[in-house]
Design goal:
- The structure is a single chain.
- This protein has 372 residues and is of the alpha+beta class.
- The protein has three domains: 128 residues, Outer membrane lipoprotein wza fold like (Roll); 125 residues, Roll (Outer membrane lipoprotein wza fold like); 67 residues, wza like domain (wza like fold).
- The chain has ten helices and 18 strands.
- The two termini are 21 Å apart.
């Protein structure tokens, strides 16, 4: 049975103070009371355990290994503003001639005029220039094209990476390469999703990296959905399953956003071995029995039938959900899945005096039928 309470929103600072008060008042007492043996293995469904969150160092190591395994080209694609050096052996006018690609990605060469090179690698540019000179100027031209200065292609990497900011592309780049350019993922802060925000006509808006603004996660939230196309990448699937189709190519103007993981907590109070706040790990499903296990199990004085879960509702109020932990442990009733900020309260003789006071601080005038 649920009782909807007309109380104010959770006051987190008061909750923390209450938890600390409760912990210090009863930690010494709890050590002297015989507890009911209960471990994680005793009460969890071991047939389908929730995998622990990946260690960030392991993720970055996988990122480096897979980036090297899937990279098939390191050649740079030319774009507006790039400065190239062109040599056509046998033509003195084109001996280490430096040329700048214009806004359309074109250069002008003696005897053959305008040549579009945008989106080509230096090697592809050599072949194209050779063909044009062979058709009208020289029988067997030998052409060399090298990039002297990179100006056309930049990307922004924002969010939970080690070095967010604007980066210049100097070769063909894929998602994992880009994340490595930013130093990899931040330890214990990054989500397992990565978003690539791509402007439909970004190739027409080439800007040098010096002019590129640094994009933050907040900028992403403030942008309108119509301003860019967003590609969502399941990074865990990419790294764990080796699905290289998710290692998409990154283009000039792309914005890569790695969301920061929002810390979530649940609380266990009352006649348990360790009253405290516990973090919900990434992708972790926390059940009521699992929460009790995190708290070290129940004390022998615990009133299992009179336990409650205090939960914040969408409208900012709280509800008190009565649970019978004994029946759940015996399999008579289904286990309950907890959500962020849930407070599990297990009444008993050690919490008879302060139990209602603690819950009053948390969620208003909560009535626990202690029934002693």
């Amino acid at each position: 049975m649920k009782k909807i309470l007309n109380s104010s929103k959770f006051e987190k600072h008061f909750l923390i103070l209450a938890l600390l008060l409760h912990f210090f008042m009863f930690s010494a007492m709890a050590q002297e009371i015989v507890s009911i043996p209960m471990t994680v293995d005793d009460i969890l469904n071991t047939k389908s355990p929730v995998p622990p969150p990946q260690n960030s160092a392991d993720i970055n190591e996988k990122l480096r290994n897979m980036a090297g395994a899937t990279r098939f080209s390191q050649e740079y694609l030319l774009g507006p503003g790039d400065i190239i050096q062109v040599t056509v052996f046998g033509i003195s006018e084109i001996d280490q001639k430096e040329l700048t690609l214009d806004s359309s990605g074109e250069v002008s060469l003696p005897f053959i005029g305008t040549v579009p090179l945008i989106g080509m690698t230096p090697r592809e540019s050599e072949v194209k220039i050779e063909e044009l000179y062979k058709a009208s100027v020289i029988k067997n031209p030998q052409v060399s094209v090298t990039v002297k200065e990179y100006h056309s292609q930049f990307i922004n990497i924002a969010g939970a990476v080690i070095k967010p900011g604007a980066y210049q592309l100097t070769r063909r780049t894929f998602l994992l390469d880009a994340l490595l350019m930013a130093g990899g993922l931040q330890p214990d802060k990054s989500e397992s999703k990565v978003y690539v925000h791509r402007f439909p006509d970004s190739s027409d808006d080439n800007v040098s990296v010096e002019q590129a603004p640094t994009i933050t996660s907040q900028d992403m939230l403030n942008s309108t959905e119509k301003s860019f196309n967003t590609i969502e990448i399941d990074l865990q699937r990419l790294l764990d399953s080796g699905d290289i189709t998710l290692n998409i190519q990154i283009y000039a103007g792309d914005i890569i956003s790695v969301p920061e993981r929002v810390l979530k907590f649940f609380y266990v109070l009352g006649d348990v071995n360790r009253s405290a706040a516990f973090e919900m790990k990434r992708d972790e499903i926390v059940t009521l029995t699992k929460a009790i296990a995190y708290a070290g199990g129940l004390l022998s004085t615990a009133k299992q039938k009179k336990s409650v879960v205090v939960r914040q509702t969408a409208d900012g109020n709280t509800e008190q959900i009565e649970v019978n932990i004994g029946d759940i442990l015996k399999g008579k009733k289904p286990d309950m899945i907890l959500v962020s900020n849930d407070i599990v309260f297990v009444p008993g003789s050690t919490t008879k005096v302060v139990g209602n006071k603690l819950l009053s601080i948390v969620g208003g005038a909560v009535n626990i039928g202690m029934g002693y």
